[in-house]
Design goal:
The protein is mainly β. 0% of the residues lie in helices and 46% in strands. The strands form two sheets. The protein has a five-stranded antiparallel beta sheet with strand order 3-4-5-6-7, with no helix packed on it. A two-stranded antiparallel sheet has the order 1-2. The chain is elongated. The two termini are 20 Å apart.
């Protein structure tokens, strides 16, 4: 999933069949995403980042949990919890609300 600030769009790529996570030696540039629904919220668990991906100076141990919730006909709430025990002492969370642009 990504949000294009210039266009005001959220896009998603879906895998329709359940697949096991990639093994550690097959790291992806943007990680390996696994999503599931918790009520009205899409929860995406992202691990297995490539060491070439630089997120605040770290990548290989990075773990993201993204939560996408439609909060109204024109709004989408996004929350991401970021953790890497080799960098931070505890996980931290960022929240953002997106408004639909027509």
């Amino acid at each position: 999933m990504f949000y294009d600030v210039g266009q005001g769009k959220v896009a998603a790529q879906h895998r329709h069949e359940r697949q096991p996570p990639f093994a550690g030696q097959h790291r992806q540039w943007y990680g390996d995403s696994r999503g599931h629904w918790e009520g009205d919220t899409l929860v995406v668990d992202v691990t297995n980042f490539s060491p070439k991906t630089d997120v605040f100076g770290r990548a290989e141990n990075l773990h993201l949990v993204e939560r996408w919730t439609r909060t109204g006909p024109m709004t989408l709430a996004y929350e991401v919890t970021i953790e890497d025990p080799t960098v931070w002492t505890r996980p931290w969370t960022v929240k953002q609300e997106f408004s639909r642009q027509e």
